[in-house]
Predict the structure.
Amino acid sequence: MRVLVVDDEKPALDELAYLLAAEPRVTDVVTSSSATEALRILQEGAVDAVFLDIQMPGLTGLELAQVLSRFRHPPPVVFVTAHEQHAVEAFDLRAVDYVLKPVGAGRLAEAVRRVASTLDGATDSAPARDDAQVAVERGGVTRFINRCDITHVEAQGDYARLHTATESHLLRSPLTTLEEEWASAGFVRIHRSLLVSLTHVTEVRMDGGRCTVVVGPPGGQHSEELVVSRRHTRELRELLLASRTVGP
């Protein structure tokens, strides 16, 4: 795909262009230092996607996205910004993704995949229904619980404790194994001893630099507040922004 990168800060522009050029799906990267220049480039030739900063002098990234949305065939837009507070406005404009700076290669690869899915007319950017079941044992009896009912997973030595809204079960599997096998189902690491299901997160709380998430209805009888380590805070917030707002 041919992509256009728009950012008024040259180091950020060059870095993003470099990372995109390394992506196997990207065949051509065009750069622009302003939204006005970007419009001129788009008049000269079509691009498959636009990777766009938000805070720029003159025409902002959000304003440029509004202009692009009126094109007969608007290109998919990925916002790449240091300002997470514009996420709602961005996805009101049907942005494909919202990536926070500084940009990691893995996170950018996910944004490119979402663009490719959009261009292909695919819907795999939305999580598929999780019908998997997990076998657990208690008192000599094997039960099967739905993985989609699991809110979070807690490490207990070489075992993992699976938590649902009303009960918990011990599973003979280390947390690292579940982290790898259940990543596609929306389970992410938030602490060295915790995985959480993104679909069950209802609140993110910040207090003095300390981040926690709530699983289950906030204030409800079956809700629980979980601590997020500093190492995982930024990644978790990015994933939640993307998973809750991507889509038509």
In short: The two ends are 22 Å apart (CA to CA). The CA atoms of residues 165 and 222 lie 5 Å apart. The helical segments are 10-21, 35-44, 61-68, 87-92, 105-119, 175-181, 230-245. The first strand starts at residue 2 and ends at 6.
